[in-house]
Structure formats: C-alpha cells, structure tokens
Amino acid sequence: MDVLHAILSIFQPATFTYLTLGVLLGVFVGAMPGLTATLAVAILTPLTFWLPPSQGLAMLIGVYNSAIFAGGISAILINTPGTPASIATTWDGYTLSKKGMAGIALSINSIYSVFGGLFSSVILALISFPLAEFALKFGPSEYFALAIFGLSMMVSVSGKSIVKGLLVGVMGLALATVGLDPMLSYPRYTFGKTELLNGFSFIPIMIGLFGLGEVFFQVFESHDVKSVFTRTIGRLFPTLEQIKRMNIPALLSAVIGVVIGAIPGTGGDIASIIAWDQAKRISKHKEEFGKGSVEGLAATCVANNAVIGGAMTTMLTLGLPGDAPTAVLIGALMMYGHPPGPALFRDYPDFVWTIIGLMFVANLVILPIGILGSRIYAKTLTLSKPILWSIIIIFSIIGSYGVNNNPMDLWVVFIAGVFGFIFRKLEFPLGPVILALILGPMAESNLRRALIISHGRWSVFVTHPISLILLSLSALALILPLLRRKKEMKKNGA
After folding, report:
1. Pick from 109, 130, 98, 144: which is nearest to 30 by CA?
2. Is residue 452 within 8 Å of 139, Cβ to Cβ?
3. How many CB atoms lie under 10 A from the CB of residue 449?
C-alpha cells in the first residue's frame, strides 16, 4: 500500500510538473561552471516551502540529480567541470570531444549518468539500512585511510610523469593548509588577510585551472582566431563494441559510487576519481585512459551519479549528510516536518517510498533530456573561438564570485588560470592538484583526531580493519604503477 500510495503521489500532474521543472533547472545550473548542485538546492529550498512536501521534494530531487549529470556537459565540451563531481569527466570527455566524438561523449554522459542514478536508487530501496550501518562504523582513522587511498590516485592521474604529478600534488596539499587550523583555529599562512581565514575556495581554483587555463592555452596556441572550432559532433550513440567495453567498468563504478556516497562527508568528486582509477586498472586498454577512453568516461559518469543514492541512504536512515546537497535536503525535510532518521521509516513509510520513487522518475526524465539535447549542447563547438572564449571567461567569473560573493575569489580564479596555462605548456597534470585540495584537509583533520583519541598511538591505523584494508590498498596503488613502469622500461631496454 505504501508503494502504491507513493506511485500515485509521484504521477499527480502537479508533482510530475515540479519534478520536470527541477530537472530542467538542474541542467542549466549544472552546466554552468561554479554553480553547484548544492547552491541550486539551497536556493530552491525556501522557495518550495509553500508547496506540499511531495511537490517541493520533487523539485529539489530533480535539481539535485540533473545538476550532477549536467556538470559533465561543460566538462566534455569546454574542459570545465560544471560541478566538482565532474572533474574526472574532463580527463577523457574533453579529449573525445576534440577528436570529433562530442556526440558519443555526451550520450555516454547521459546514459551512464542515468544508469548510476538508477542503480543507486535500487540500492536505496533494497539495502539502505545495512549500507548506512556500515558507513556509521567509520571513525577518524577510517576517514584518514580513505583520504590517503584517494591521494594515492595521484600516481594514476599523473599521466606520463609521476614526478610531475607528485610535484603539483604537493603544491595542492600546500594550498590546502592555508586558513584556520582545523583543530586549534589558529591562522596559518594568511599573512594577516581575513579573506584567507577560510582558506582557498576549491571551486575558483578548479574553474581557473580547467576553464581559464584552457582558454589561455588555446589563445596562445591559436594562429587564426577568426576561425571556428572545426571539431565535428560525430555520431550520437556509441557502437556495440564500445558498449561492451563500458559495461564492466560501469557496474564496478556504480558500486564504488554507492559505497563512497554512503560515507558522510564524501561526494561525487572523490567517487569519480577512484572509479576512474579502478576502471583503468581492470581495463585491457590502459593506454587510452586520459586520452579519450570511453571506459574512463563511463566510469566517472556512473560513479558521480551513483553517489546520490548512497548519500540519500545515509541521510534518510541516520540523519547524516552523505554530501553537501543532502545536508541542505536535511533542512528541507525538517522544514516539511519530516526530520530524517529511523523514526522517519517507522512513522512515514509512504513518504520514504515517495522519495525513493522520485529518485527513479527523476533519472528517467533526465535520459531523454540528455540525449535529445546532446546535439544542441554540442552546437557550442561551432561558435567562433573568440565568442566561445568570452562565454567561458564570463561564466568562470560569475561562477567563481557567486560561490562566496568574495572579490578575492576573482583573483584566485585568474591566478589559477595562469598556473593552469603554465601546467598545460609544461605538460604537468592538473588532476593531482584537485585531489590534494579535496582530500588534504580531510586527511589532516582526521589524522589528528585519530591520534588525539588514541593518545598518540599510531597503531590505531592498523588495528582497525577498515583503515588497515584502505591503507594496504593505498600502498598497492602507489607501488604497482611503479613496478609496471619499471617492467616496461626493462622490456624496452631503457
């Protein structure tokens, strides 16, 4: 009866209309660099207060799901992630676009984003309690080990030179130390500037490195600014052979996304990077990753959307936000008089099933919008270079300033753009910088918490099974690529 009541509630004309409207707004917000899913959900939450809970949540869930998907559109077309969750999508998606395969890349983003969302919705419906119970076991030592595991991916995303990757990774870790000490709130490297007390905002740096850096590089390399981008949209759907190659990485990435999403405080950016790395490890075409791999692109698209179901699981059952957007959704549920937690499942099971049903339907609505709109999105490639450069710069500035309304972020995005250009010219990878900025604070704060709790005993990281497994995987992630390269050099007689 609860499931039937939920189905009838979702397909009421008003509820379905608000869901569709939320999806369309999410596509617009997600495709604009800097305007995150969190921002969209936060802005819309007070506007939905006058709506019935099912209709208000329909709009919020529609925005949340479609904004994560749409972040891949700008990542593929202009090498600028629309949302942080789409950082890893740039690594293969933009390269495919430059090869004249923008249509295939956008279709992969649509199809596999929806697959990730539907897979995680199934998990939310079937095993929400066990998954949330597992995430609850994570303490400071486990979070530190997870951060180290993520940082170990620097080797995999370093491209041709591991040394260059580690150098820019250390640079990212240094930037992550700026601001108030996470334990003692003592200012570090702020030089008396109050604007730096909160540290460097991640989104302006991301937009600068990927967006402005790409524009500066193209301006420098371009010999004929009057010409238009000659890349073709190409075919719209991947071939059967490509689909076969993407199936196993997609399934693995879906599982990774759900598990990472269920861990409070993580998000699609971490999940997509880990999924990309694991897809590379199991692939028979490792040399294509970072150079236009359909497997790598599918893995990132699945993972960052599968995070949603995992995050919703933790949020609904435990009242803990799995990621930033679900933190805002907690406030929305409380505003509707349905605070999340075990009592929600006991007292309002029909409402829970409505939320789960909205997750399913939102992804089904995204699929036709994503595929039918692919050729429209890809038309941006036919714009003249100066016009496209101007659009990217304007969106980058608006997106960077709109996050915190802080004028200093404009300087940050410009300086990051200059460094992005320099790194491109010197062939330094950008991925390790982003990894370090995301995971550096997480690693530092949880390392210190774990040591305080254990009275300074470092053994706390190997006596807890979960942290021991993660640290062991981190060691393998660092050692195996080095051994593989040594083997290749010996084989080539180097």
Report:
1. 109
2. no
3. 17
Q: CA 193, 36, 302, 16: dihedral to nearest 10 degrees?
A: 160
**Residue type for position 78:** I
Q: Which helix (H) or strand (E) holds 179?
A: strand 179-180
DSSP per-residue string spanning 61-73: HHHHHHHHHHHHH
Question: Largest Cα–Cα distance of the chain, in whole Å?
Answer: 71
Give the model confidence (pLDDT) of 287-342 as tens digits.
888 888 899 999 999 999 999 988 888 888 777 666 778 877 877 887 778 888 77
Q: Of all helices (H) and strands (E), which one includes residue 187?
A: strand 187-188
Helix (H, G, I), strand (E, B) or coil at 455: coil
Cα(182)–Cα(174) distance, rounded to whole angstroms?
A: 15
Q: Where are the domains of the chain?
A: 2-486
Q: What does pTM read for this prediction?
A: 0.70
Question: How many Cα atoms within 13 Å fall on the side-chain side of residue 99?
Answer: 15
Residue 253 is which amino acid? S
How many CB atoms sit inside 10 A of residue 319's CB?
16
Tokens (6 digits) for 436: 């370090």
Q: What is the Cα–Cα distance from 24 to 363, expressed in whole angstroms?
A: 12
Q: Which amino acid is at 420?
A: G
Whether the CB-CB separation of 371 and 69 falls below 8 Å is answered with no
* Region label for 405, one of left (φ > 0), alpha (ψ between -120 and 50) or beta (otherwise): left
Q: Which residues contact 63 (CB under 8 A, 6 or more apart)?
A: 22, 23, 25, 26, 29, 37, 40, 41, 44
Residue in the block written with tokens 């540290």 = 199
The number of residues in the chain equals 494
Contacts of 301 (CB under 8 A, 6+ apart): 69, 72, 89, 108, 109, 112, 113, 116, 272
pLDDT at 81: 81
Cα–Cα distance, 356 to 362 (Å, whole number): 10
